[in-house]
Write a structure and sequence with these properties.
Blueprint: E1 3-11, E2 14-19, E3 22-30, H1 33-42, E4 47-52, H2 53-58, H3 64-73, E5 77-81, H4 87-95, E6 100-103, H5 105-109, H6 111-121, E7 126-133, E8 136-139, E9 144-149, H7 150-159, E10 164-169, H8 181-190, E11 195-199, H9 205-213, E12 218-221, H10 223-226, H11 232-240
Parallel strand pairs: 1-4, 1-12, 4-5, 5-6, 6-7, 7-10, 10-11, 11-12
Antiparallel strand pairs: 1-2, 2-3, 7-8, 8-9
């Protein structure tokens, strides 16, 4: 069964969602991220994708206290991303309770450092963030496009030891128009052993079913939950079947 991973994006200490990564298109859903995390836990969810949007802008971890609070007061398994640029940032994230960290821009801008993280912290603890627009990798909070092909980018890092990949189609993120199932299907067909986490565009329960039919085993859901398109009780019932 596909694993459901809810998302919390933190900006100014609040739980927000952006559309296509645009900070000018933000919406605040809750001023207490811990409260949201506890709701997820209460409905039987076990994982959490936590993104430090302040950290993305500052190029360093900012909201580690929020991470620490959620990690210490829930049993959620947290993967943390946003602003991770140095060993110091990664160590702060792990010390604050993250079980995994996600690096995207760093894997493009400073691959030597990202490789060191894999070697130092282990392939089960480091997730590759592969965010793309028109099948080309985008970095720096999605403000900078590159010519890196998404498939080759993932393939190259798999050769360097990466096991887990979060792939976001930026054009779909926050738009509630459905995920790019074909993109995820092709990634999985090229590499059946990859631990692929699909992200972006989930709008309803049928979207989850479509991903599962495409042999995708993990999916991140954000805005659809906050907008009431997908109800936590329905996710619980789905997991209990």
């Amino acid at each position: 069964m596909i694993e459901i991973i809810p998302a919390i994006d933190i900006l100014d200490g609040k739980c927000v969602r952006l559309s296509q990564g645009d900070y000018n298109q933000k919406k605040v859903y809750n001023e207490e991220p811990l409260e949201v995390a506890k709701q997820f836990e209460d409905h039987g969810l076990h994982r959490l994708h936590l993104v430090d949007l302040d950290g993305v802008k500052a190029n360093r971890v900012i909201n580690y206290r929020v991470l620490e609070q959620i990690a210490s007061r829930t049993s959620l398994i947290i993967d943390f991303g946003g602003g991770l640029k140095s060993d110091y940032d990664v160590q702060i994230a792990f010390d604050s309770g993250a079980e995994m960290v996600t690096g995207g821009s760093i894997a493009v801008k400073n691959p030597e450092v990202f490789q060191q993280w894999i070697d130092k912290f282990g392939r089960n603890s480091i997730i590759l963030g592969a965010d793309c627009r028109n099948n080309r990798i985008a970095v720096c909070g999605w403000t900078e496009n590159t010519e890196e092909d998404i498939f080759l980018f993932i393939e190259n890092w798999r050769k360097q030891g990466i096991l887990k990949v979060i792939c976001t189609d930026i054009s779909k993120d926050g738009m509630l128009e459905g995920p790019n199932v074909e993109l995820y299907r092709e990634i999985k067909e090229r590499d059946p052993e990859i631990h692929l986490i699909a992200c972006g565009g989930i709008s309803c329960m049928d979207d989850i079913d479509r991903l599962e039919e495409a042999n995708i085993s993990r999916v991140i859901i954000g805005k659809a939950i906050y907008e009431g398109r997908i109800h936590l009780k329905d996710l619980r019932e789905r997991m209990e079947k």
